[in-house]
Amino acid sequence: MMKNSTGKLFLCLLIVFIGIACHKQEPSMKNEIEARVRSALPAGTSYEAVESYFQRAGIEHSWAENGKVLHGIIRNISKRGPVSESIQVVVHMDNEKKVEKIEIKSVFTGP
What we know:
With 111 residues, the chain is α+β, with helices and mostly antiparallel strands. The protein is built from three helices and four strands, in the order H-H-H-E-E-E-E.
């Protein structure tokens, strides 16, 4: 027999996972963000222009020199129960610090 606190923890985790599995993603917000980012930052855009765009758009970001990648995040675009959705923007740069490719994906966090 499970201890009461272990049972409660299991139940909470189960509810979170069911919430994620049943979450009907609203593609319009993610798609809108993706369209804006890709339009503003086509291949060949300089690092300085990308960083300036992120700053103007209020996108938190950091640079990873060793991977030539600029990581950005737009936090809490939606929330369902205890689960929040954020959008991660990963900009891969070439050796001249120009946009090579962009990855955009949803990231879910919860308790």
